[in-house]
Amino acid sequence: MPHITVVLNQKGGIGKSMIAMQLAAVYAETLSAEGDPEVAVVSIDPQSTSVDWAERIEKAGRVVPFRVIEASGNIGNLRKLRRAKASIIVIDTPGFLPLGEDGESIDPLGDGPVGDALRAVLDIADDVIVPLEPDPAGFKPTRTTIERVIKPRGLPYGVVVSNWEPRDGRLDLERTQSMVRKQGWELYRSDIRHFRMHARALEEGRVCTQYMSNHTATKAKQDFLGLALEHQLRRQKQAAL
Ligand SMILES: Nc1ncnc2c1ncn2[C@@H]1O[C@H](COP(=O)(O)OP(=O)(O)OP(=O)(O)O)[C@@H](O)[C@H]1O
Ligand SMILES: [Mg+2]
């Protein structure tokens, strides 16, 4: 049975697709034999960033090292993912409308097709990764995501500080992490730094395991390897509970 991880944050443009694709890449490098993908990214985002990304990898003459499945128009089949022949499935989700921020009775996922797809994947999820950039605008949507969507479902989750700029020092990272701790939210110790290489990866048709080999690329990939390791250790800890 696959382990299903949903990458979720109400806010758009916060690194969900980046984390879904790069995490899948490092898992695939570790797990997959050629022609037998053990890892899949499933997209329920009508914007289909991860599907476009996979197409660019192929156009660049490379092989996508994991399966990428478009499922935004196919909610009925999502339940079948539980029986899929894969070890790890990472689900890339769209941002969702800030509905009912203050109305307790309103489901913040909304009642449209995006909300239906999000509910369907959360029903089959084993855990949730919540990316958060060091930008105050991300705070409120992250709170809605954790307090009103994840916690009521009792899903294990962790916030990952993503896309922070190391050239500006560690202040942004530390501030964001301390804000997360103050809220009493689960925080990943791993974080994802901003690298130009990542920003260009989709356009160039590569995932981090396909970057040119140099010092910067090694550092850039390292963040996702660290995240993958922590993800698995958390999973082990969870299983022992
Ligand atoms: N660590 C990083 N380094 C450099 N660029 C990054 C990093 N993480 C994300 N980005 C860039 O930030 C932008 C938003 O990232 P991404 O598409 O992953 O966000 P998203 O949450 O999936 O957005 P959406 O809600 O629109 O699906 C993209 O242009 C992406 O290339
Ligand atoms: Mg996305």
From TrEMBL:
Q: Which Gene3D superfamilies match?
A: P-loop containing nucleotide triphosphate hydrolases
The identity of this protein, by name, is: ParA family protein
Q: Which InterPro entries match?
A: DNA_Partitioning_ATPase (IPR050678), P-loop_NTPase (IPR027417)
Tell me where on the tree of life, at the top rank, the source sits.
Bacteria
